[in-house]
Specification:
By secondary structure, this protein is mainly alpha-helical. Helices cover 79% and strands 0% of the residues. The protein contains 16 helices and no strands. Helix 4 runs antiparallel to helix 7. The radius of gyration is 20 Å and the shape is globular. The relative contact order is 0.16.
Length: 393
Amino acid sequence: MKNTFVPTKWTLLFLLLAAMLTLMGGAAVAPALPLISEVFSDSPEYLVSMIITLPSLAVACTGYLIGIACDRFGRRPVLVFSLVVFAVAGSAGFYLDSLWAILVSRIVLGVGIAGLTTATTALITEYYTGASRAKVLGYQSAAMGLGILILETGGGSLAEISWREPFLIYLVGFVILAGVLLFIHEPSREPRQARHDGTVKLNMGALLPIYASIFVGMAIAFLLPTKLPYLVSEVGTASTTGTGLLLGLMGCCSALAGLFYGRLAARMPRMQVMCLCFFLMGLGCCLLGFAASVTAIAASVIFVGFGQGALIPTIVSWISNKAPTQAMGKATGIFSVALNLGQFGSSLMVVPILAAVGSYSNLFLAGGVCSVLIAVVYAAAWMRERRGTANTV
């Protein structure tokens, strides 16, 4: 059945505003991490860093179930519920005094982010098709990048007041909620019994490499919000506003990459785009490994931003081509799990790596080398596809 609701420009606007919160929703308070470490000085650094990464773990644990809920109860109800959770749980750190209580609130925040990621992506893939879908997926990635810019620079500025104020930025969820209630409607699909008779299944053999790619990509990219503040301090500049601006610059570049993704996807095969994404992230991280000034750090994060900005819409487009519409909520739910599990896993993986390499500079260098190696794998896949196409002509 064709959708009876035709999305308007206002629909697209509030879909993108909701998507804006998903990628760095857990990391909005990242510039305040050194300050929080000072307040809770009796707690180890990795525990404080979990303020950023615990939401990702919560998404990893609940994303699949929320994807099922999206298919069963509808995308819009899940989106509305998630925005409320995002605003309430996200702002809880402003008035909580215990680090453990804050960590619990971050787990609840993760449930909201899981719903936002799954519902917005599923709605976009159902509202739009063909070239329009590629363009809107690029807009979605741009919105995520803009979210990094707004949330990180806003969080950095608010952290100049105290470590608590950055948590207030999550209240923007209530503003977006009003627009969602007015302009976003549930798309019409097959009858409920046809959608949930158990016959529609995902081809996990085809989807698993896609999910693995977003997991690794996010594990590398998330080194920046969790460890860049410490690298900046290591270089010698400890301003939270400056750190927020650096992370915001990455978001700005990510947004620009998303805006031009539709043109990129029309001109380059998917494997080539994937190769480019991982190469740019790897180049940026390697440059961070050698950065000795804030200017050098700023130049480095530009590459990571462009790579991340093109990676996410490429992955979502790839998933939408492989998964049936009836199970799109489940498919995007697993995407949300892989994306956020990569973010959470990043904070755990860096502990032994940082102990082995000895400095934050070497940590970024190690992440960059890993990303470049993945780019080489995708380059080989692209060349194999080219040879296969040439042989069939």
